[in-house]
Design goal:
Structural class: mainly beta
Radius of gyration: 21 Å
Order of helices and strands: HEEEEEEEEEEEEEEEEEEEEEEEEEEEEE
Number of domains: 1
Oligomer: single chain
């Protein structure tokens, strides 16, 4: 009887460990969808919690950043670099991407499987790894006439979407083959994101956006009045908002809020708390890199500007490390800044 009880307790403990691991992985990989339904009480964001890390990251202009756990992160650059950290951003190793064209966005769907989009006037490309970045396979998306892709979202290891100029394609086999999502698509598709397995949004350089509620099988074109150039997509506490130049538009009611001028990219933690990054010019020749924090959805905000060693600085990548840490990358001619925000 006691032996049976011990076996039951061991099985229960083992199942609990598997469940905890699954929950932990889902937290990190859901970050890549720019989605938040966080109901946890988050303390107010403060500039005093911004910490510049003395990191050895190779200098470049990094546009994409993601973490698969609190220590393991990847960044991609405009010169084709892929770098990886395994200690929370202090040390970075240059991975062998085998490409030199600009890389724009990176997403990992498991600890080992990740995707990168990039390209130039020679065409659009997808890079894929299945061994945590040790090696990468380059897949030509055959979009030579229309340049680099703009957006990407993979729902899992097999099913993904990529957008670009006259490009909106889908794969169901991990990127090996691709099919057009929309017949005769002749628009500039900017971003594509899914809130869950069924609900997704794609934006274009016009007053319309595309919505799916069946996992991407069918897409409906929806017009927005007096709105153009819809770009980045954010799912915030049950709402869908898209960036439109200097505004954020709520797709539910077409209401909008104005963003501070330097903000180029955003990372929402919940409906009120958000990080914005970008660049602004003052009287000096070199521009300042900016990190902005809001605790009331841009009603008010805190701003910190960086201009180290009289060089141009621009913050271009931001990502969650875990539920209490954010990493931000700033790019200059001489070096790349690594800044961490604790909250």
């Amino acid at each position: 009887m006691r032996l049976e009880l011990i076996n039951f307790e061991l099985k229960t403990m083992k199942n609990s460990i598997y469940l905890l691991a699954a929950i932990t992985l889902s937290v990190f990989y859901s970050c890549s969808s720019d989605s938040t339904n966080n109901t946890e009480t988050i303390p107010d964001l403060s500039l005093s919690n911004l910490i510049t890390i003395n990191a050895n990251i190779p200098q470049d202009y990094y546009d994409g950043l993601t973490f698969t756990d609190e220590n393991t992160g990847y960044a991609v650059s405009r010169l084709g670099k892929i770098v990886k950290t395994t200690d929370g951003g202090v040390n970075w190793n240059l991975l062998n991407s085998n490409v030199t064209f600009p890389l724009k966005e990176i997403q990992f769907v498991t600890q080992n499987t990740g995707f990168v989009i990039g390209g130039d006037n020679t065409g659009s490309y997808l890079l894929k790894t299945t061994n945590a970045g040790q090696s990468w396979t380059t897949i030509n998306l055959n979009n030579t006439a229309n340049g680099a892709p703009n957006g990407m979202f993979f729902k899992n290891e097999n099913e993904g979407f990529i957008t670009g100029n006259k490009l909106f394609i889908k794969t169901t086999d991990g990127g090996l083959t691709w099919t057009s999502v929309l017949a005769n698509a002749d628009e500039n598709f900017n971003d594509v994101k899914f809130r869950d397995s069924n609900y997704g949004i794609a934006t274009v350089n016009s007053s319309a956006y595309y919505k799916t509620i069946d996992g991407g099988q069918n897409w409906q074109s929806i017009d927005l009045i007096n709105q153009n150039n819809l770009s980045s997509i954010y799912f915030v506490s049950g709402k869908t908002v898209v960036k439109n130049e200097g505004k954020l538009i709520n797709l539910l009611d077409n209401s909008s809020i104005t963003l501070p001028n330097p903000v180029n990219k955003l990372l929402y933690l919940n409906a009120l708390k958000c990080i914005g990054i970008g660049q602004h010019y003052e009287n000096s020749f070199f521009p300042y890199g900016d990190i902005l924090l809001t605790n009331n959805n841009w009603g008010t905000f805190l701003q910190k500007s960086y201009q180290p060693s009289s060089e141009a600085m621009n913050f271009t990548a931001v990502a969650k490390m875990d539920s209490h840490k954010i990493m931000i990358l700033g790019n200059g001619q001489l070096h790349t800044m690594v800044v961490k925000l604790n909250y």
